[in-house]
């Protein structure tokens, strides 16, 4: 049996005041408008006793906002690591008095279109369009009529929407610098080939990490000692690529793995070849999956700042929604967040004379 929702009129009747007076008291304006403490106490007591809850949607619509936001993703919520992106977004929204609705499309364009329409039918104030893996994509025309931020995705053509993504180029630079500063000059790549575009299809992270690595090596007057493209960054391909590295150089000085799953395979191949990490080979990687610390020794890895990405995207979206000129993001600006290094035991300095 459905219980009738308590209304403001019910509270006013129980307190013996007008609906206007009850509304003013419950909105916190009682003292400002000189409503007596006794009357305010009666209204609050009646509200508590009847279990009154204001209709937030109706209030929001009168004020031009529902204090709700929508997040439409491909597979973010079901991804183990990128779930932190959702967590960051939810917490940042809650701290600012907003609720976040989440919908997944599993990469189906029709499902995405339906979700965007449903979100807007429910009068959300803004939309986060999100991807599990950083990628470039077309932005749906449906978003032209609502504040939007792209999270972990880039527009495939110029757009007015701000985007929030990891700073993969700088992470690639930092990985190369880390090995150079340890004295390494023979640096092999596992996950990308020798050319600037030799990466797996649709991997923005691969393109940008490779660009950063190549830039720093070039500045040092170096090229990769070898480079091995993998079309799927998983342990078996890391294992096979490491065997190719060893065929080129039986004593490789250092290897950059383009993610931790590749690093897992590289560790196995080096172990089978009787090489020790980091005594014989130094390894650096990206993503900081749990396996990065499970390996022995743990692999030094640049972590995707998932939670911070979600938080920053919400901040930019709410700035659009509230229209505060000082905080509003510039159209089309890409906000890149640093990947912190989780240093472990996989890098050793080159010994003098080695």
From TrEMBL:
InterPro entries per the UniProt record, alphabetical: HTH_LacI, LacI/GalR-like_sensor, Lambda_DNA-bd_dom_sf, Peripla_BP_I
Keywords of the record: DNA-binding, Repressor, Transcription, Transcription regulation
Q: Which SMART domains match?
A: HTH_LACI (SM00354)
Coiled-coil zones:
none
Which residues belong to any copy of the HTH lacI-type domain? 6-63
Annotated SUPFAM superfamilies: lambda repressor-like DNA-binding domains (SSF47413), Periplasmic binding protein-like I (SSF53822)
Q: Which Gene3D superfamilies match?
A: 3.40.50.2300, lambda repressor-like DNA-binding domains
What GO MF terms are annotated?
A: DNA-binding transcription factor activity; transcription cis-regulatory region binding
Name this polypeptide is given: LacI family transcriptional regulator
Organism whose genome encodes this protein: Xylanimonas oleitrophica
